[in-house]
Amino acid sequence: MEAALLWFCNWSTLGVCAALKLPQISAVLAARSARGLSLPSLLLELAGFLVFLRYQCYYEYPLLTYLEYPILIAQDVLLLLCVYRFNGNVKGAAPYVAVFVASWFILPLQKWILDVAMNLSTFISAASKFAQLQYLWKTRDSGAVSALTWSLAAYTCATRIITTVMTTSDVTILLRFLIMLALNVWVTTTVLNYRKTAVKAE
Prior knowledge:
Elements: H1 2-18, H2 22-31, H3 39-58, H4 68-86, H5 94-106, H6 111-139, H7 147-166, H8 171-201
Helix pairs in contact: 1-4, 1-7, 2-4, 3-4, 3-5, 3-6, 6-8, 7-8
């Protein structure tokens, strides 16, 4: 029974993550605008994903417990390029891409650097969710923000809580997923709330 649950959680998470950002990317492309998206939120999320992936690789955790992160990073980079394109400055993404690539090689130089970065990455990822929430509260407009993307992110956090408990029992990772689950649900409900407000206004 445990093996079946672990199998389901791992593969459903991979399946969901393969398409996680696609609703958001398609919403931005359809609107030809990044209205409602917070650039700081996206950059912070990307940084958190990168540190988390490097941490998992360094400690040689089972591949299926983090295989979705390269997929998520690729989708975030694509979304970042879309945001810069519709803001009229694609070249503006280059310094961020350079910093992220350099970080990949710097993080594992010392174990303590990676451990500190992993602990900070939970705060960085939480800050990315708060940046999106703050942007939504400020504009009171969900614009091109995809509620589906945020709800799928909540689902993957829930499944990763289960897989972490069943495999590595790493408290740092477990705490990260618990915090991210709560924040993803909060962003989803905020997006849906502003969407309802916009429909009533029309």
